[in-house]
User: Which sequence fits this backbone?
């Protein structure tokens, strides 16, 4: 009989906690054993939606860990509190899935809590870009951001990233001309890769990727591959890794995510100091 993976969700700063708990509830080999947040009001919807009992709902993370004994903990704290929460949970010896915060209202425009478009969104591009480039780390980064009147954080940021083989860039913006989840804005959200013998463009939610090669410089489209188990979501992928020993891929790999974060940290410091910096860390 397959092991039933015990999963707890701790810290609801970021609303993706609901998505990750849903992925847990839908997995045949996983169960939600507890949820925890210092603000009880944040737990009401998840308690009701996942039919959790009172003894599975906590406001103290230590009590949650000690009483539910999870195999995996999902953490969704604000960006500025990532390190603190890993330090709190790691001593319990559990596996950790850390969600990158996105649009939690409590920190969105707060400089002290790690708000701003650069710290919010750029990690997607730099982490996936690092994966696309085979895990290569850059040499230096130049970060630039806007300084909107009346705000303490940026709404638009660009990073120029220099590698040993050339330049790349990552751009993030709150307030694109259209909502990218509804209508792609211009410039489109996605990735463009330029190699020595061709190019590939991959834009969010499009059913094809576009390719150019030396043999076909006019370009052509290729249908995207369907996303199948065990790669449909992070909970499924991590459980597959733990059950089979199969390697983690892409953003769930520590080395890939670390380089992506190093690029963001360097871009942030560079923008603040208004100068190009060597990759930090």
Assistant:
């Amino acid at each position: 009989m397959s092991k039933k993976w015990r999963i707890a969700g701790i810290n609801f700063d970021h609303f993706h906690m609901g998505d990750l708990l849903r992925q847990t509830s839908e997995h045949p080999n996983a169960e939600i054993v507890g949820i925890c947040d210092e603000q009880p009001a944040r737990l009401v919807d998840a308690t009701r939606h996942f039919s959790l009992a009172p003894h599975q709902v906590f406001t103290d993370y230590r009590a949650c860990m000690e009483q539910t004994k999870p195999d995996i903990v999902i953490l969704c704290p604000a960006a500025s509190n990532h390190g603190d929460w890993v330090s709190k949970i790691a001593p319990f010896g559990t596996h950790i899935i850390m969600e990158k915060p996105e649009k939690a209202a409590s920190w969105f425009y707060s400089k002290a809590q790690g708000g701003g478009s650069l710290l919010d969104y750029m990690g997607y591009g730099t982490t996936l870009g690092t994966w696309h480039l085979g895990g290569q780390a850059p040499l230096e980064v130049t970060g630039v951001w806007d300084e909107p009147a009346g705000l303490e954080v940026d709404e638009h940021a660009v990073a120029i990233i220099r590698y040993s083989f050339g330049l790349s860039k990552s751009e993030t913006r709150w307030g694109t001309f259209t909502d990218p989840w509804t209508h792609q804005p211009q410039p489109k959200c996605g990735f463009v890769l330029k190699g020595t013998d061709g190019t590939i463009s991959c834009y969010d939610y499009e059913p094809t990727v576009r390719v150019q090669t030396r043999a076909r410089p006019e370009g052509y489209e290729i249908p995207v591959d369907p996303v199948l188990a065990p790669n449909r979501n992070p909970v499924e992928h991590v459980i597959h890794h733990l059950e089979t020993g199969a390697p983690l891929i892409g953003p769930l790999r520590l080395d890939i995510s670390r380089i992506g974060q190093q690029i963001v940290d360097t871009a942030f410091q560079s923008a603040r100091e208004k100068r190009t910096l060597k990759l930090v860390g």
About this structure: The first helix runs from residue 16 to 26. Residues 117-187+226-278 form a domain with the Dihydrodipicolinate Reductase; domain 2 fold (CATH 3.30.360.10). The chain has two domains: 5-98, 117-187+226-278. The CA atoms of residues 55 and 150 lie 45 Å apart.
